[in-house]
Every structure is written in structure tokens, then in C-alpha cells.
Amino acid sequence: MRVVVVGAGPAGMAAARTAADAGAEVTMVDSEPAAGGQYMRGRAKFEHRGVTHLKNTEAWLVEGNTLHLRGPRQLPFDALVIATGAYDRPLPFPGWDGPGVITAGAAQALAKQGVTLAERVVVTGTGPFLLPVATALQDLGATLVGVYEASSPVGWLREAKAIAANRHKIGELASYRKALRHLETRTAVVGKQGDRVTVAKLDREWRPVSHRTVHADLVCVGYGFLPRTDLVPDAKRTNDFLDVDEHQRTSVANVYAAGEVTGIGGADLAEAEGVVAGAAAAQQEPPREALEAVRRGRLFAGALNRVHAVQPGWKTWLDPDTTVCRCEKVRLEDLTDATSMRELKLSSRVALGRCQGRICARNAAELTGVPFDGQRRVIAVPIPLGELADLPEEKK
């Protein structure tokens, strides 16, 4: 039984270990030089004699029961586990494409390496991820000007079931008490020019109702996450995330998914889903405790999605000349009237740059009203044409 796992974060490592312990021949593929994913950023020490760990390796296509890797190289499998995680979603505002603005995930990644880019910092966005980012920057000596949460915590009062099932999250919240002292809710950064940062109080729809100016050298932006689902463009999904059954099976035969590609619920949920997916991929019954952990974690993930959902009022933050696509320098006024994401890309060049729309495509779709296609592309990552030419020809 050959099981291939793509991704070496909490979900991928758990899936690989579990499948190998069940007797499968396991290969774990990851584009980073060390295991850990975005959560542990190379600080994880992954060793398992039943797992071959392919580092610095990008997967770019799933074709039947074959995974195509950069090189080019083909990796056959009997079962595939997608554990590719997610990436930050920033929302544009005037000045976000200038110096001194990065994603919250980038700020945390640098902080884990002992690096902070500025003395005075602001963290803005929505969701609990803002707090560990702010805390990490504080621990490195940065002055935290503010932590601006666009949503209202009042929504959590309606999520008693999710909170009761995940009481340990309350302890995690308490560990961020230094950052909590700087937290303002229904507030967001809506502009930046030099070190002058425009901060707005927001209504329920995130429309600004008042403005003020603070001074900061760095703004860290994070409005949730978008899943990396490129490898399985035809899989069924809900709100961009892959649909899975109780054993983490996707709608694609022999393909399982675990972690943030199925929903954002934290590292503990990702790890539990990895255990379930790894066992099922190796044709074993998943452990009951892992299934129960997934059940509890998904309650929290659902609550998180409801309380910290991006509201449409953010679109009023932009001026006509605000950059929407940083790669191709596409402004709001450059976006065309289109009926599909494909037409929008071809007519305005939005999402056609180096990042291939990972940063801007969702925002461009919301700004124009075209249906978001969930980044359903045949080739998951940019590859040289020479690698395509080097692929073996099909035997007739």
C-alpha cells in the first residue's frame, strides 16, 4: 500500500506517521527544507523509519494515481493525502502595496526566526491569529501600537457549544494577555502613507464610521486564510474548502484531505484530521479519540468562520486608484465588467502575476461580483516549460 502525503505541517506529519504505523509505504512531500509547515516553521523534528520525507520538493499535478513533482518526477500512489495548508488573506486598502505592509503570517514567520522589521507595529485583520502574531512581535521588543480586530467578540456569546467543547482554547487566549491590552474591536487599518496609518471604527458591515491617525512603521494584515487546494481542482468544496466525509475522503477517488484545506480550526484539529486521514488512507479504521477530536475541532472551526467572517463593507475602504493586484499593478478602476473569473483575468490582468492570484483573486471577485473559481487550475504551481517538455510521452 503506497500512501503519498503532500504537506509536512501538523496534519501532514500526523497522516504520514499514522499511515506508516499501519504498515503502508509512505512518502511525505513538502516544498520547505524542514518539517513543521507554517505553524512550526521548520522547528519540528520529523523522523519515522517508515516515511520517506522529500524536502524542497514541489508537487504540481495529480493525474490519475500519479503525483507529478518538480524535477520532473512522477510518484505513483494508492492513496493520496492533501495536507497543503492555507495562506493569509489580506484585504487591500490605500497604501497596502507600499513599504511597511506585510501579511500577519509573514510577520509571524520572521518572528519565529528572531526577526522583526520595525520598532512600531500594528496588527490588523480578523480572527484569533492576530494575537499570537502581536505577542511574537512584542516578545522581540517591538512597540505594539495597536491590535485592530474588525469583527466583534460579541458573536462568541452565541457559540457556547463550540466553546464548551474546546475549553483549552480559553487557556490559549489567556497566554496572549499582553497583546489583549492593545486590542480594539470593530476597528481596522484602512490606509497608510509613510508612517501615518489611518485607523477606522467600523459598523457591523465593516463600513467606516470614524477615522483617526496613528504612527507605525509596519502594518501586519490578516483577514483569515484561503486553502491551498490547487492539486485537486475538481474536488467538491464548500466556501473554498474541500468537502470530506467522516474519514477525510474527498470527492476524488483515493484522495483524502486533512488540516486547513478542509477548514480553519487550529493545529490540534489539523493534527487530528491527519491521524484520521492517514489511517483511512492505509485502509485502517481511524482511532475513536481522533474522530472525537475532529468533531470537537470542527465545532470551533464553524464558530470561527461565523464570528470572524469577512463583511462586504471592506470594499468601501478603497479609492479608484487603490492597487488590487500587486504583481500586475492592477488598480480598482482597472477591473473590468466581466461575467467570469477567467474573463476578468484576461481583460484586466488581475491574478496573472507571479502569485497566480493567491493574494488578489478572491478580493477581485468580491469587488466585481464575478463568481470566484476557487483557483481551479490544472497546474498547481508555476513550472518551467522545459519540465513539461521533459515528461515521458504516453505509450500508445
Tell me what you see in this structure.
The chain starts with a strand and ends in a 7-residue tail after the last helix. A five-stranded parallel β-sheet has the order 3-2-1-7-20, with helices on one face. Strands 9-16-10-11-12 form a five-stranded parallel β-sheet. With 396 residues, the chain is α/β, with parallel strands linked by helices. The mean pLDDT is 93. Helix 8 crosses helix 9. It is built from twelve helices and 22 strands.
Report how far the terminal alpha carbons are from each other: 28 Å
Uncertain runs are none
Q: Numbering strands along the chain, what is their spatial order in the largest sheet?
A: 3-2-1-7-20
The residue-averaged pLDDT reads 93
Largest sheet: 5 strands, parallel
Strand content: 15-25%
The counted number of beta strands is 22
Q: What is the C-alpha radius of gyration, as a whole number of Å?
A: 21 Å
Structural class: alpha/beta
**Which percent range fits the helix content?**
25-40%
Count, helices: 12
